[in-house]
Write a structure and sequence with these properties.
178 residues
């Protein structure tokens, strides 16, 4: 009986010991699982932090590009305003050249009408009506100077027409550039 009593008393202790070891093993397994989970979470956090750094770097780069483009647009706006001022100046010069050209054309037209109406016979008469050689030479010199003046005025008119043409082309190019 004694033996039976001892066995009864010692048996719950063995069952209790086995159950504690299982619990310790379970807790150890849970601890290892939690540590593995923690390691995974830390790895994920490191990966997310790396992605965050990449995105912040990319955002900084985009902001720098935006600033550069904004500055370029401002600079182009200033250049466009300057070109428009140049174009206005060029157009004013063109209008002035056209006015000068029109005046020269009218003057030349009057001179041609006068020459047509009075003809070269008038000049010949003027020369032949001279009383002496000195007067003849003076009149001949005057006629030569008038002819030279007419040639110079025609050349100036032609040059002015060429200048007007060049200014029109330049004005068109300025408009296209703007």
């Amino acid at each position: 009986m004694l033996l039976t009593g001892i066995m009864t008393v010692s048996m719950p202790g063995a069952v209790f010991a086995a159950s504690t070891e299982e619990q310790i093993a379970d807790v150890q397994a849970q601890k290892e699982a939690a540590q593995a989970e923690l390691a995974q979470q830390q790895s994920d956090m490191a990966s997310l932090e790396s992605k965050k750094q990449e995105l912040e770097s990319y955002l900084a780069e985009l902001n720098a590009q935006y600033t550069e483009l904004t500055n370029s647009v401002s600079e182009l706006g200033i250049q466009a305003a300057e070109k428009e001022d140049e174009l206005k100046t060029l157009q004013a010069q063109l209008e002035e050249a056209k006015a000068t050209s029109d005046k020269q054309y009218e003057d030349m037209k009057k001179r041609i009408v006068y020459m047509y109406e009075n003809g070269s016979a008038s000049m010949l008469e003027l020369l032949l009506s001279s009383e002496d050689l000195a007067q003849f030479l003076n009149r001949a010199e005057n006629i030569a100077q008038i002819s030279q003046y007419d040639r110079n005025m025609l050349e100036k008119y032609e040059n002015l027409q060429e200048t007007i043409k060049e200014q029109k082309t330049a004005a068109q190019e300025e408009k296209t550039a703007i």
